[in-house]
Hints:
elongated, mainly alpha
Amino acid sequence: GVKREVFLFRLVDNLEAYMEGRDTEPIYRNLPFSELVAWWRERWLLPRAGRVDGWRAWRKEEIKNILLMEQNKATE
């Protein structure tokens, strides 16, 4: 199968304090999606793309075929 990575990023500024019970309400980063994407891109995507170069060998056709194969498996 296709191995996938999941990247998570914090949408709550006071996550630790809220989870530990020191704050009673989470403080959400109520940002437009475009700003969240820009933050993720700068914080995670670009640094990782600089360290991991396997993606340079990807071809559009191969990615499409892999995705279609996975989609077909899911519907069987």
